[in-house]
Design a protein that fits this description.
By secondary structure, the chain is an alpha+beta fold. Helix content is 23%, strand content 32%. It starts with 7 loop residues before the first strand and ends with a strand.
């Protein structure tokens, strides 16, 4: 069974909500709903085919975590700058909600789409954001922002290639429903912000200026130069001083 409703709260339009027990992917379901609805939030207790960047699987136990997607149908032309801001909206909404419910923990954004938590062993992924745009020709018709947060997850599959954690493993007890309500409200508020405001705050939270950066399958150490208005990361090799753009196919690692 699914339910949906829509309302305006504090003068901010909130999405039509669809809550399901199980779905293949909340992103895919949101895309289907956008054919009939202009602005939706899809949540599920479990995903059978959840995914992250580069098609990687997003694993999680039933009812233990947040599996959610916010989708919006665009009524007119959208610039590349505006489209890039959806990653910032998703990442910042997750970060703000985690900080609210876990004031004694430390969280950070990792370019482009990870949210990490500080553990005794180092930084570990606790959440991820997946933004997908649909196009007709050169025009973007819709955008879906997938939001995944590890809440009660205690064990992670062996094939995950990076350290992971959850709020439960950080000794933070909070209901998934409470996190979801706050996530919905923060995301709705950020959807009203202009792209340049979202972009500026996103860059500040990424805080990459002092970090040494490695790019998987690429030699050398790199330094942050800037994040362009369209969301692309520009880096400079510390030895050759050559600049390059980090592409969607690259995997960025911080040396810390």
């Amino acid at each position: 069974m699914l339910s949906f409703h829509n309302l305006i709260y504090n003068n901010v339009l909130r999405p039509i909500e669809f809550h399901l027990p199980i779905v293949s992917s909340t992103n895919d379901y949101a895309k289907e709903l956008l054919v009939s609805y202009p602005y939706v939030l899809v949540t599920a207790q479990h995903q059978t085919a959840g995914r992250g960047r580069k098609g990687r699987a997003w694993h999680g136990d039933y009812g233990a975590n947040i599996y959610a997607s916010v989708g919006i149908r665009h009524s007119g032309d959208v610039t590349t700058d505006e489209l890039s801001a959806y990653m910032g909206r998703g990442a910042q909404s997750v970060l703000r909600v985690l900080r609210k419910h876990s004031p004694n923990a430390f969280f950070r954004l990792k370019y482009p789409n990870d949210v990490q938590a500080k553990t005794e062993q180092g930084w570990a992924k606790i959440a991820g954001v997946l933004v997908e745009h649909e196009f007709q020709g050169s025009r973007c018709t819709s955008t879906v922002v997938g939001l995944g947060i590890n809440v009660e997850q205690r064990v992670f599959p062996d094939n995950i290639t990076q350290p992971c954690t959850s709020l439960r493993l950080l000794d933070v007890g909070v209901a998934v429903s409470s996190l979801l309500n706050d996530l919905r409200d923060v995301m709705a508020e950020l959807m009203t912000r202009p792209w340049f405001d979202v972009h500026e705050t996103w860059v500040q939270e990424l805080d990459m200026g002092s970090k040494d950066i490695r790019i998987a399958e690429t030699e050398g150490t790199w330094k942050f130069v800037r994040i362009a208005s369209d969301g692309r990361l520009i880096v400079r090799n510390v030895v050759t001083q050559m600049e390059r753009t980090v592409t969607d196919g690259d995997t960025v690692r911080y040396q810390d």
